[in-house]
Amino acid sequence: MKIAVCTKAVPDTETRIAIAADKKNIDFAGVRFVTSPFDEFAVEEALKLKEKHGGETVVFSLGGAECTAVLQDSLARGIDSAVHINDPDFANLDTLSTAKVLAAAIKDGGYDIVLLGQQGVGGDNSQVPSMLAELLDWPQTTMVVKLEVEGNQFKAEREIEGAHEVVTGSLPAVFSAQKGLNEPRYPGIKGVMAAKRKTIEVKSAESLGLKGKVSTELCKAKLKEVLMPPERPQGRKLEGDIDTQVKELVNLLRTESHVL
Amino acid sequence: MSKGFLVFVESRGGQLRKASLEALSEAKRLAQSADVHAIIVGKDIKGLAAELAKFGPTSILIADNDLFANYSSEAYAKAVTEAVNKLGARFVLAANTSMAKDFIPRAAAKMDAACVTDVMSIKGGGDNLEVTKPMYSGKCYGVYELNSDVSFITLRPNVFALAENGGEAKSEDLSVNVEKVRAQVSEVHASEGNKVELSEATVVVAGGRGIKGPENWPVLQNLCDTLGAALGASRAVVDAGWIDHQHQVGQTGKTVSPQLYIACGISGAIQHLAGMSSSKVIVAINKDPEAPIFKHATYGIVGDVLEIVPKLAAEVKKAQG
Ligand SMILES: Cc1cc2nc3c(=O)[nH]c(=O)nc-3n(C[C@H](O)[C@H](O)[C@H](O)COP(=O)(O)OP(=O)(O)OC[C@H]3O[C@@H](n4cnc5c(N)ncnc54)[C@H](O)[C@@H]3O)c2cc1C
Ligand SMILES: Nc1ncnc2c1ncn2[C@@H]1O[C@H](COP(=O)(O)O)[C@@H](O)[C@H]1O
């Protein structure tokens, strides 16, 4: 079984976000990059599938120099090899262009399964997995909390509003990982040492045959401006003994905020 | 003449989803003179058209077929793209539900189209819209322009106003040519827990480590029942095994935008705020006056959550008469 995993390098979730001078992006100065949280579940699932069914695992990341540490982290957890797609043409791509690049890198690799996170930090889009499935012309299941594979059939459970859905289908297929799918392992010292001997192959727009086909300019969804969220009006702590505060709260919820 | 809107309206168990009707209401607001068509997809759903017509679509396309009885991303994406081709729509709107999140990007890729998800405000009208959505878990917002012949937009539930516009929409069957479905829902298991779906609830009561232990959920559940609220939780208590992950609010849980969010014994970590900071009114109950949650709360009460919540439930009951 051959498994691809896509991971995105993103600012650590504790990062205080500041907006860049041109207001087109956030200011990345001094930001520490990590694997996007849901992608850790995708990596773990790839490792578990390989442990059970044998085969090979390859991790892909599209982006600049920040991807190296993220790819090394996956290699240290046990992924066999890595592909870094790095090209100035591919800076700040929208979701569809990102999916086009990943599809070009994955499509002829003989993969049975592609695993992604259900949502990447940053754009918070939840789009790339479904788009990638369409571009590869494979079936998909997103937000997966349980995955079983038997021969070329799969059974995946996904979380929906107030229920779990079981999806059955055939491989090759694309899956996106939701929290609950597994418990990601941490890379051990041995893993970190082993990762140093594994290869990170670098691909460009040229080598993927995408020169002039995918680029920042050609994106269809254009990020025009990044803004800070609207300020919340200053809140207040209520006063008096607990009974008074509770009465006052219900009163305010009714007469001031009109939510009761 | 503008090319108009298509709104995907989701139904479940013979009911139209409120969040989808919010999307339809917003399309009506934006369309100006352009048409707003609605599409429903499923099996034995013709009966839903009358209710749907109240929200004023120009026409209702009904894709009613055995193939749609069980959800599949491939078949639903095909139904929506065929409707777009038939109508020549400029914008496709849908509620950002787990179904739309699954197949709308697939439909967009099929049409080589722009797609922006979880949108919280839309400006403009006619053929040009500018959409704003949270990024970095709501720590900032992005404003997008859409540069394709057709563009797909999903709207965060509970954010856009519902408006019955009335009207006499005509219904029309849409026959969809689905070549292949290689993955499909085979079973659905209702989960125990919330009767009101968390991401669509107008009131959410959420508990964190400050509730002391899972034996105290009934205290919060009682307040939920009084308010018709859904029960949420912080990750700390999900990780501790006190409650199922489906209740988790935050960056690695659900995003909620209720009218009222009551945080009980939750410190207000940045990853928790990511999931609830767009709530209209936030109430914080926490015994630590320095807890970060108070910076974001509309109203705060400093004290023991297990003492305050039952009193609050009683007071609300009294107010309800
Ligand atoms: C990658 C990543 C993703 C994450 N995703 C999420 C997420 O999706 N959702 C999420 O919630 N967290 C998430 N977290 C975790 C987050 O950082 C916090 O650890 C978590 O939110 C804390 O939960 P808590 O507020 O219940 O617990 P604590 O931080 O322990 O706070 C408990 C609060 O209860 C108060 N308290 C104690 N006793 C009482 C009492 N008797 N009465 C009243 N108040 C009392 C305390 O003063 C304290 O403020 C994530 C973290 C990471 C690193
Ligand atoms: N630049 C990227 N490189 C590799 N994988 C990515 C990239 N962007 C998104 N992905 C994958 O797609 C998932 C969903 O991203 P998104 O649609 O942006 O929310 C992520 O969790 C990753 O698994």
* H/I helix tally of chain A: 6
Order of the strands making up the biggest sheet of chain A: 9-8-7-10-6-1-4-5-11
- Percent helix of chain A, as a range, is 25-40%
Q: Name the CATH architecture of the largest domain in chain A.
A: 3-Layer(aba) Sandwich
CATH superfamily of the largest domain in chain B: HUPs
Counted beta strands of chain A: 13
What does the average pLDDT of chain A come to? 96
Count of folded domains of chain A: 2
- Hetero groups: flavin-adenine dinucleotide, adenosine monophosphate
The CATH topology label of the largest domain in chain A is Rossmann fold
Structural domain count of chain B = 2
Low-confidence stretches of chain B: none
The helix-and-strand class of chain B reads: alpha/beta
In which order are the strands of the major sheet of chain B placed?
Answer: 7-11-6-1-4-5-12
The biggest beta sheet of chain A is recorded as: 9 strands, mixed
What is the chain-wise order of helices and strands of chain A? EEEHEHEHEHEEEEHEEEH
Number of contiguous helices of chain B: 9
Tell me the helix content of chain B.
25-40%
Report the β-strand fraction of chain B as a percent range: 25-35%
Indicate the CATH class of the largest domain in chain B.
Answer: Alpha Beta
Description:
The complex is a heterodimer of chains A (260) and B (321). With 260 residues, chain A is α/β, with parallel strands linked by helices. Chain A folds into 2 domains: 2-218, Rossmann fold (3-Layer(aba) Sandwich), CATH 3.40.50.620; 235-260, no CATH class. In chain A, 28% of the residues lie in helices and 28% in strands. Chain A contains 6 helices and 13 strands. In chain A, helix 2 (67-77) crosses helix 5 (189-197). Chain A starts with a strand and ends in a 5-residue tail after the last helix. Chain B is of the alpha/beta class. Helix content of chain B is 28%, strand content 29%. Chain B has 9 helices and 18 strands. In chain B, helix 5 (217-227) links the parallel strand 14 (203-207) and strand 15. The mean pLDDT of chain B is 94. Chains A and B meet through helix 3, helix 4, strand 7, strand 8 and strand 9 of A and helix 3, helix 4, strand 7, strand 9 and strand 10 of B. Strand 13 (236-237) of chain A pairs parallel with strand 18 of chain B, so a sheet runs across the interface. Bound molecules: flavin-adenine dinucleotide (FAD) and adenosine monophosphate (AMP). Flavin-adenine dinucleotide binds next to helix 6, helix 7, strand 17 and helix 9 of chain B. Flavin-adenine dinucleotide is lined by residues 208-210, 234-237, 248-253, 265-267, 269, 271-272, 275, 285-288, 291, 304-306 of chain B.
